[in-house]
Amino acid sequence: MADNLEIPKHVAFIMDGNGRWAKQQGLARTVGHQEGVARVKEIIRGAFALGIKTVTFFAFSTENWNRPKNEISVLMRFLDNFLSKEIGEFNKNNVRFFVIGRQDPIPKYLQTKIIKAQEQTKDNTGLNVVLALNYGGRQEIVDAAKKFAKDVLAKKIGWQDLDEKIFRSYFYNAQLSDPDLLIRTSNEMRISNFLLWQLSYAEFYFTPKNWPDFKIPELKEAVREYQRRERRFGRVNVR
What we know:
This protein is α/β, with parallel strands linked by helices. β3, α4 and β4 form a beta-alpha-beta unit. It is about 40% helix and about 15% strand. The protein is globular. The chain has one domain (about 10-135, about 180-230): Decaprenyl diphosphate synthase-like (Undecaprenyl pyrophosphate synthetase).
């Protein structure tokens, strides 16, 4: 990794292919999800080493509730184990933990754990680790609009004051910067209702690797590709 090239400050991940990976190995889908959790932990370590400031993982969408109940149960159990085992390590390594998305219908015991984990790490100043859980980009925009309308009705703000900056302050976690780079695995080439507003100027990187096969070398290659891109934000570069 070249030291003189810019490292993306915020990298977002759509983690596809756990089930496909398991099927290719002749294993149960749950084993694929378990291996996927291991990759999350590895990528967090890799991001920290590269100097990335924020990583956001699309862990569970609002549409994922349509999956079989036993698979949802397994995913919730994996999340429970992750929170139990990793938050102590996060504190040791100055990592701050966030969750974005709607609370309900996430089980109450997990909601309590999530709140506690965020509280325990709130003073950490190193890497930000964000889980998008029960998250949908359209729903976030609708929820932000409702919050703004409520404040207008309460006369806390005037409707005419609305601009992009103010509207973004109503998002689930407004203090986080927008992603510079989106990585999606398993050769899927869409954003699937993920961070619709925030990804407006992100660079996209798609890979045929299934998520359980996406390791630190793959992360480094994605960052190298990002460094080869020319980000103009609507401007024309004159050389």
